[in-house]
Amino acid sequence: MAEIQILNPPSLGVPLGQYSQITRVKASEFLFIAGQLSCDKQGAVVGAGDFDRQCRQVFANLGDALQSVGAGWGNIVQFTTYLVHSQDIPGFMAFRLREFPQMFPTGAYPPNTLLMVDRLVQEPFLVEVQAIAAL
User: Fold this and answer.
1) Which phi and psi (to 5°) does residue 50 adopt?
2) CA-wise closest residue to 79 among 95, 68, 87
3) Under a CB-based contact definition with an 8 Å cutoff, are residues 31 and 132 in contact?
4) What span, in angstroms and rounded, lies between the C-alpha atoms of 78 and 46?
5) Domains of the chain, CATH where assigned
6) Using only C-alpha atoms, what is the Rg of the chain?
7) pLDDT at 18
8) Nearest Cα to 37, choosing from 5, 7, 60?
9) Quick one: which of 20, 24, 37, 131 could link to 5 by a disulfide (CB 3.0–4.6 Å)?
């Protein structure tokens, strides 16, 4: 029988709606991380109008989620990324080119599905990323 743990680590702050930040499933054991936005622990927007700053905060939040269960970037098996503006695709690719070599030093980058959406939960958010990790 699977063991399921729903977690809202204090390092990520209060969820902005009816969801939890993490579901930890122990079967083979996978970690499902809700889409992270560019907000701080109090739920305030970080980097309004600044796509690169929002990317940095989104991935910092993902890193906090991984650390909260003793995992790291090497545990990620899939990302799903949501962008509001197609014009931000080059900025997202530039962010990955700059940051991913430090996050994934082996050069083995997890699969990523990139989707364009009309908007995210609040207007100022430009990017959201959810992740699945194997533990």
Assistant:
1) -120, 95
2) 95
3) yes
4) 24
5) 3-134 (3.30.1330.40)
6) 14
7) 65
8) 60
9) 24
